[in-house]
Specification:
11% helix, 4 helices, 8-stranded mixed β-barrel, 248 residues, mainly beta, single chain
């Protein structure tokens, strides 16, 4: 499947503009451009710093801890030019590469959290109708893996996020692949630097569909999150649990 789709990214040669004067000596044929998708073995592929597993549909990429204090979180993952003062993690991967991994692994994007616009381009109170099958397939789990004094540990990222009023960890539950948008020919997360949002953000490619995603009530769990700049690996997998009535 990925090999077939990777053909889309086959080499593209550029044409030099015509010039006046005597013809120049022929140049060697240009080398084909390199596909961004690199095969590692029968089931694993790499796109920049993003790796993916064709069988399990798992996506991995490096990041580091950004916020450890009790300041409010509005984002889960951003790039260095994103809203770092409001994000738990910072990564230097290309959002385009991450979105390509989602596409190659056939995750559908669900816009269910975003309000529809009317004919004047103004926001309404209506949400798009999204088939239940798309909602379910767009839900993902996000884990964090890190070295804890010589021991590799892996837990859901929700366990590192605390409700500032209830002082409890964010309940176990999925995140939502929403896909983001193209603006003026550019992928929005590349421009904003914001990849995964806790507060609903249509420009982010991942959003939190659970409760309190419209209130500024989340912070880094101070007793659980390791020190700032701790290297981590973020792991995205298909959500394995069925939807519950409390989830959109």
């Amino acid at each position: 499947m990925i090999c077939r789709l990777a053909i889309v990214f086959a080499a593209i040669t550029s044409l030099a503009p015509a010039q006046n004067g005597p013809p120049a000596a022929p140049n060697p044929a240009p080398a084909p451009a390199t596909s961004p998708v690199h095969k590692l073995d029968d089931f694993h592929y790499r796109i920049g710093a993003v790796t993916l597993d064709q069988r399990s549909r798992e996506i991995r990429f490096p990041a580091k801890v950004n916020r450890t204090a009790e300041r409010a979180l509005e984002y889960l993952i951003v790039m260095p030019q994103g809203k770092t003062h409001e994000s738990l993690f910072v990564t230097e991967i290309s959002p385009t590469h991450l979105n390509l991994a989602f596409t190659l692994l056939r995750f559908p994007a669900s816009p269910e959290l975003f309000y529809l616009l009317d004919a004047k381009g103004e926001m309404t109170e209506q949400h798009p109708l999204v088939p239940a099958s798309v909602k379910a397939a767009a839900r993902i789990d996000i884990d964090v893996e890190w070295d804890d004094h010589g021991t590799t540990r892996r837990i859901p990222v929700n366990e590192w996020i605390q409700h500032v009023v209830k002082t409890t960890a964010m309940a176990a539950g999925p995140w939502l692949y929403t896909g983001s948008e193209i603006s003026d020919g550019q992928y929005l997360p590349e421009m904003t630097g914001d990849l995964a949002a806790i507060m609903i953000d249509q420009s982010a490619m991942i959003n939190f569909p659970g409760p309190d995603n419209d209130d500024n009530v989340w912070c880094a769990y101070p007793k659980r999150v390791p020190p700032a700049d701790t290297p981590v690996t973020l792991i995205i997998t298909p959500h394995s649990k069925p939807l519950t009535p409390s989830q959109p």
